[in-house]
Amino acid sequence: MSPTPKIGALAVVLHKGQVLLVQRSKQPDAGLWGFPGGHVEWGETVLEAAARELLEETGVIAEPIRYLDNLDLLLPGPDGQIRAHYLLVGVACRYISGTPLAADDAKDARWFATEQIAQGNLPMSDRVPDLLRFALQADQVSDRPDSRA
């Protein structure tokens, strides 16, 4: 049987002009900042996985709202052959409660001003700025009053 990609969920939480990021403690991306997330478990939706992983890694509770984007992560080995393949799904989540405290696979967890991410002066995982941009656009759309009312 040939290997298959693993599915991961990334929780993108915006709150008061800030975004929640974790510093990874394990490979891939050890030491880099990224969105809390992890593997989708059997029988669990990606939305459920995003909320669960967020709570496990940071202690923050949020409601998963919508899918944002899919990211392919292909990790080659020393011989150039693909050794791991992940399909990461960004999920916009609405903050409910909690103060970030690193746990599980996170070395650190904290809020960052969204402008700081755009400046690119933080060591981050690939596509963090892109996924944040999608989340900010989706957040603006959801804040607009319904023009049909």
TrEMBL record:
<dbReference type="GO" id="GO:0016787">
    <property type="term" value="F:hydrolase activity"/>
</dbReference>
<protein>
    <submittedName>
        <fullName>ADP-ribose pyrophosphatase YjhB, NUDIX family</fullName>
    </submittedName>
</protein>
<dbReference type="InterPro" id="IPR020084">
    <property type="entry name" value="NUDIX_hydrolase_CS"/>
</dbReference>
<dbReference type="InterPro" id="IPR015797">
    <property type="entry name" value="NUDIX_hydrolase-like_dom_sf"/>
</dbReference>
<feature type="domain" description="Nudix hydrolase">
    <location>
        <begin position="4"/>
        <end position="136"/>
    </location>
</feature>
<dbReference type="InterPro" id="IPR020476">
    <property type="entry name" value="Nudix_hydrolase"/>
</dbReference>
<keyword id="KW-0378">Hydrolase</keyword>
<dbReference type="Pfam" id="PF00293">
    <property type="entry name" value="NUDIX"/>
</dbReference>
<dbReference type="InterPro" id="IPR000086">
    <property type="entry name" value="NUDIX_hydrolase_dom"/>
</dbReference>
<comment type="similarity">
    <text>Belongs to the Nudix hydrolase family.</text>
</comment>
